[in-house]
Design brief:
Bound molecules: tryptophanyl-5'AMP
Number of helices: 13
CATH superfamily of the largest domain: HUPs
CATH class of the largest domain: Alpha Beta
CATH topology of the largest domain: Rossmann fold
Oligomer: single chain
CATH architecture of the largest domain: 3-Layer(aba) Sandwich
């Protein structure tokens, strides 16, 4: 039996945070045991907001290293930079011709980002490139955090439209969204998701933050005016977010965390969360330090070469379907 294909992508922004880790990355790593996994550093998506080219080049390598340090295994999974596989953009163009602008206008991430960074065509068609990423290798499943749900729905609509118009080519991809960790919230505004684009750095914990920074961030995390450590997303979003983070890093259940820290006050609890996060990220940090930049760059080039070969086979089928063969 052939194994199912998993695809996912992550933008290299230099600000990879524990939301990226808990919502997506950890699942990527686990899925490698069972599936044919394809993981992509989506650099073309990242340049839809203004970036310093020199810094970006460094961030891109850093992101590749963080993913490898977290457990993405280039020997087992296909792992590469999106920009080095031009079939992504070719398929995005083709899918763009069957995407309605009405549907793109409804994308909430576009609206958010356009408000903050200004609008451009790349940002607008971002979800179409994401659909192309997923469909290029005929992915069956896509591990993502909750914020990508709407983009997945667009992808699924495009599968239906393409297959209906040109014949069955793409399987219907299913999102894999974790029960817990799919939406890690900002430490400063627990009603908003933790985001790499938020200017206030104290709103997030970066995967590569040192222990002291992690302690400081958690100490300053916004909670509420009560003192009880209790999970209640609606009434106590700050504390609930911290409970969830702790639960994910230690494996302890929400109930056992409530039982252990319930009446001990927030200060004590926040210190314990900090130690759990530090311990949870420690292996990743030490793996990261061991990685050699030139070796990672070489792995990424090899990944791109394999990805191009694999993608080309699939793209030939698409070209044929739409009348672009030969
Ligand atoms: P990106 O780079 O913003 O985020 C990478 C992954 O992290 C998840 N994530 C979160 N999960 C939980 N809590 C949070 N606060 C949080 N913030 C981010 C995201 O859901 C994502 O899974 N458009 C995508 C990248 C992409 C992609 C793809 C994903 C491009 N092509 C194809 C899957 C398949 C994005 O911007 O992710």
């Amino acid at each position: 039996m052939t194994r199912k294909t998993v695809f996912s992508g992550l933008q290299p922004s230099g600000n990879l945070h524990i939301g990226n880790y808990l919502g997506a990355l950890r699942n990527w790593v686990k899925l490698q045991e069972e599936y044919d996994c394809i993981y992509c550093v989506v650099d073309l998506h990242a340049i839809t907001v203004p970036l310093d080219p020199v810094e970006f080049n460094t961030d891109r390598l850093e992101a590749a290293k963080v993913l490898i340090a977290a457990g993405v295994d280039p020997e087992r999974s296909l792992f590469y930079y999106q920009s080095q596989v031009p079939q992504h953009t070719e398929l995005a163009w083709i899918l763009g011709t069957i995407t309605s602008t009405g549907q793109l206008n409804r994308m909430t991430q576009f609206k958010d980002k356009a408000d903050r960074a200004g609008s451009n065509l790349g940002l607008y068609s971002y979800p179409v490139l994401m659909a192309a990423d997923i469909l290029l290798f005929r992915a069956d499943a896509v591990p993502v955090g909750e914020d990508q749900k709407q983009h997945l729905e667009l992808t699924r609509d495009l599968v239906e439209r393409f297959n209906h118009r040109f014949g069955d080519e793409f399987p219907m991809p299913e999102p894999i969204i974790p029960d817990k960790g799919a939406r890690v919230m900002s430490l400063q505004d627990p009603t908003a998701k933790m985001s790499k684009f938020e200017p206030d750095e104290s709103s997030r914990i970066l995967i590569l933050d040192d222990p002291d920074t992690i302690r400081q961030r958690l100490k300053g995390a916004v909670t509420d005016s009560e003192t009880e450590v209790r999970y209640d997303r609606a009434e106590k979003p700050g504390v609930s977010n911290l409970i969830e983070i702790m639960s994910l890093f230690t494996g302890a259940s929400v109930e056992s965390i409530e039982a252990e820290f319930g009446g001990g006050g927030y200060g004590n609890f926040k210190e314990a969360v900090a130690e759990a996060v530090i311990a949870g990220l420690a292996p990743l940090r030490s793996n990261y330090k061991e990685l050699d930049d030139a070796e990672v760059a070489r792995l990424m080039q090899r990944g791109a070469l394999d990805a191009r070969t694999r993608a080309e086979g699939f793209q030939q089928a698409v070209r044929k379907r739409v009348g672009l063969a030969g």
